[in-house]
Amino acid sequence: MTLTAESRALDLAQDYLEAIRAGSLDAPGVTRASYGPGERLAHARAREAAEELGLEVRVDPIGTLFMTLPGEDRSLPAGMIGSHADSVPHGGNFDGAAGVAMGLAVAARLRHLGRRLPRDLTVLAIRAEEMVWFPANYLGSRAAFGILPREAPDTLRRSDTGRTLADHMAEEGFDPDFIRAGRASLAAERIAWFLEPHIEQGPELVEAGIPAAIVTGIRGSLRHRNCRAIGQDAHAGGAPRRSRRDAVIAAARLVAGLDAFWTAEEAAGTDLVCTIGEFFTDATRHAPTRVPGEVRFTLDIRSEDVAALARAEAWLAEAAAQAKARHGVTVDYGPALHVAPALMDARLRAALAEAAAAAGIPVLQMASGGGHDCATFAGQGIASAMLFIRNDGGSHNPQEAMEMGDFAAAFRIAAGAVKRFG
Fold this sequence. Notes:
This protein is of the alpha+beta class. Helix content is 38%, strand content 22%. The protein has two domains: 295 residues, Zn peptidases (Aminopeptidase, 3-Layer(aba) Sandwich), CATH 3.40.630.10; 120 residues, 2-Layer Sandwich (Alpha-Beta Plaits). Strands 3, 4, 5, 6, 7, 8, 17, 18 and 19 form a nine-stranded mixed beta sheet that branches. Strands 9, 11, 12, 14, 15 and 16 form a six-stranded antiparallel beta sheet that branches. A two-stranded antiparallel ribbon has the order 1-2. The longest helix is centred in the last third of the chain and has 22 residues. The two termini are 34 Å apart. The model has no long low-confidence stretch (mean pLDDT 97). Its cofactor is Mn(2+). Homodimer.
């Protein structure tokens, strides 16, 4: 039986995903550390697949893998598709890697059909996206564009080893001086568009029974990692309510108020999510018989809407003033990390929707709650889009469960859209 171009392309993608899973198993999941052996394996397997397809392959000084199917007019800016290949520790096999597999599959289909796009199509395998390894957003894609701080190789240390980014890059055969010098291997003017396929990291597609989604934008965020509610320790039996400066009561009221703010914004149709990831008293000071004088907590507020993030920031300031007035408790949110939203290109989104309709595949339109390298591309003024693939079990855990049938549906959308992107 003769295999079709589509089935051959999907077989390639499945073989790639199975090979990198087998090579990076770290029970109960997989581990592909940024600039570590698992990521190295994933890049090597992608390169092998690309070379078997006859794609042009090159690696830049920081390890970005470029796999190019030549187009009809090579002077035109290239279209790009891909994602990252690292994972969180003991994570799932599909976060990031499914996008690399999708890019290879789209290129393979074109190769097997003997077709060329008007411009080059470059499949990217990007380094070091998962922030769990090095404390920097989108490290690999920012480095490729030359916008990572020049001191990063010497100041960023990997979480599991304590060694610098420079050490790990050199160990993998790459050149940290590329970053120190502010050099770039990606230039916005040479990129026509970028598409990042990715598994969905939440439950919406599973709940809707739909295989894929077109991403409207990547949520920006307002983050405070070192929040403190500071009151005064007191005796649990001896201190009456009127004299207490109870940090737990004040902080709990703030959290409840934030939930009410979120509820109201959501009811008004605002895209918003709010998370208190940590909330604790000092274990060396707290006791059942002590009124707690300090609470530490974190805040992570995300939205596609810049105005919504501004309203949240204003609400936090007012909540701190109320905590002081009502409870005598000072709320210090500490430094703020602002990450701007990245809206996806309307023309590319329309092309994805047309491709889905032509293939008879239902899709959702939804925001991405997680950050992605696509935000770096959009931030450089490049027309960018994301395509989510249904994935049961969430993300960043061994329960990631993308079905190849859903991958195939998303592949048909991606392949059809790439032709329409021009």
